[in-house]
Amino acid sequence: MALAGFALYCGGIDGEPPGIHANRFANYIVEHEIASHNTALSFIQEMLALDFLRYLPIANDRRARPMQPTEEAAKQLALWLSIHLSVLDRLDGGKRNASFGKKPELIALMQPTISVGIIESDELRNPGETFDLFTWANSGGIIMDYLISRIGTINTTTKKAIIGPVAFTDICNRFLISRTNAKRLMNKAIKMQSVGWMGSPGRSQLWLSSAFVEEYCNYQAGKLAIIDAAWQNTLGTRPIRMPSAKQNFTSAAPSR
């Protein structure tokens, strides 16, 4: 939903001029089957409460009160893009992230293309049952990233990657998730034969199935391909159609 919100603000990906308000955002989210209307509106309220969004001067229609990302939201999006550009650079020795550091304004051009690419990709929207399980659980996405980051090698015979001891206490403290929710998440993954402990649950070495790892890798590869294509289109010779109206990230408070 965050990617969709930025893309509406920067690029008007719904066919309207760039910008965002609550109902416009919710309608886009529902139309693309990302979440329910109520969930989308709740997300907007949470972003406002966390100071990732702020209202612009009140419009005539309060139902269409415009908003903009705050400085902190723009900073986090830039960090997200920088990390992915760095990964691409490590794969082929490129200098994308260094170039991005010199031209941070490129994010407003690239972001709508990246968001649309991800939102419209069936492979990225539905990468696999285990990936979906973690993604839709509270803190599940970052727990999944953490587990994958501990992989050394995969045993080709057992088709498992043993990642070492993983304790529930560590997961709970590291990712601010309750022990009940952590156990529920891991138990569901165990039933899917996607993860498992070599001995006592939460007190022994944990393994990940090769199928789970493949889901994760396929998702990341697809996402990186979309980001790289957006980079090449923005800086290369392949033009992409961008909205005529320009939107800028700003840390300045709106004029009164």
Layout: helices, strands, pairs:
Elements lengths: L1 H10 L10 H10 L5 H13 L3 E3 L11 E3 L1 H22 L3 H7 L3 H14 L2 H4 L3 H7 L4 H10 L10 E6 L2 H8 L3 H13 L3 E3 L7 E5 H26 L21
Antiparallel strand pairs: 1-2, 3-5, 4-5
Describe this entry's structure for a reader.
This protein has 256 residues and is mainly α. It has two domains: 2-120, Arc Repressor Mutant, subunit A (Orthogonal Bundle), CATH 1.10.10; 129-215, Arc Repressor Mutant, subunit A, CATH 1.10.10. Helices cover 56% and strands 8% of the residues. The chain contains twelve helices and five strands. It has helices at residues 2-11, 22-31, 37-49, 71-92, 96-102, 106-119, 122-125, 129-135, 140-149, 168-175, 179-191, 210-235, and strands spanning 53-55, 67-69, 160-165, 195-197, 205-209. Strands 3-5-4 form a three-stranded antiparallel β-sheet. A two-stranded antiparallel ribbon has the order 1-2. A hairpin with a 7-residue loop joins strand 4 (195-197) and strand 5 (205-209). Helix 2 crosses helix 3 (37-49) and helix 6 (106-119) packs across helix 12 (210-235). The longest helix is centred in the last third of the chain and has 26 residues, at 210-235. It is globular.
CATH topology of the largest domain: Arc Repressor Mutant, subunit A
Largest sheet: 3 strands, antiparallel
- How does the helix and strand content classify structurally? mainly alpha
Mean pLDDT: 89
Strand order of the largest sheet: 3-5-4
Note the total helix count. Answer: 12
Q: What is the CATH top level name of the largest domain?
A: Mainly Alpha
Succession of helices and strands: HHHEEHHHHHHEHHEEH
Q: How does CATH name the architecture of the largest domain?
A: Orthogonal Bundle
Tell me how many strands there are.
Answer: 5
Segments where pLDDT lies below 50 for 5+ residues? Answer: 237-256
Rg estimate, integer Å: 20 Å
Shape: globular
* Percentage of β-strand residues: 5-15%
Domain unit count: 2
The span between the termini is: 29 Å
Helix residue percentage = 55-70%
